[in-house]
């Protein structure tokens, strides 16, 4: 392979996809924050479900921070499948709460 | 944003595949993506394409989470519609279902795109914006109808 110095062309990322990797890590962080926000919202009425979602958000944050040195830029189907399964599970739980939960009176002004 | 990034880069892919710079052709890298072994005409795409595809999926997963959160908040936090006791569930439940559909479809699209990138094919368009627009428009119309119905039945 060519050395990084030979590789720099019209795009600075030709030599090293470092910025793309960083954007992707930040995207994982935002996904984890979205999970944490949902967990915090659920925490008040359903503590166990809320804590589970918060633990899940920490795990997702960790997945985003995993060093990619061994396989930088390779597809990670398992990690993404975990996200897909987690969101599906959370939506099923939300559906159960919405349809079978007690009739809430809503926030009073 | 990520979609645009992916589309812009794809225009350049055929030229880059020819000079051997954009696409890695090391055979040891062929067997990792989407869980099945790749034929000889596939190559591991440029890391930036893989990252961009991953970010697109993550952005859709956040959209799905926002839909689920909004649906749950409507059912749990909104004051009830006077005269329409099932009103909040009618609006909130489809939003939650839409969220789970969005994350499943976006995962399937991620898999398809990763395969297209390995083969050097165009990634194609996502169906999700259309699905999202139509469904949210229908839910909005239902919400308007419920609000009007609630106003009529109160008197």
Keywords, separated by commas or semicolons:
heterodimer, A: mainly alpha, 0% strand, B: 155 residues, mainly alpha, disordered N terminus
Report on the architecture of this protein.
Chain A has helices spanning 4-7, 18-43, 47-65, 77-100. By secondary structure, chain A is mostly helical. Chain A has four helices and no strands. The mean pLDDT of chain A is 81. In chain A, α2 packs antiparallel against α3 (47-65) and α3 runs antiparallel to α4. The longest helix of chain B is centred in the middle third of the chain and has 33 residues, at 87-119. In chain B, 70% of the residues lie in helices and 0% in strands. Chain B is built from four helices and no strands. In chain B, α2 packs antiparallel against α3 (87-119) and α3 (87-119) runs antiparallel to α4. The chains are: A mainly alpha (109), B mainly alpha (155). The interface between A and B is large, with 50 and 51 residues.
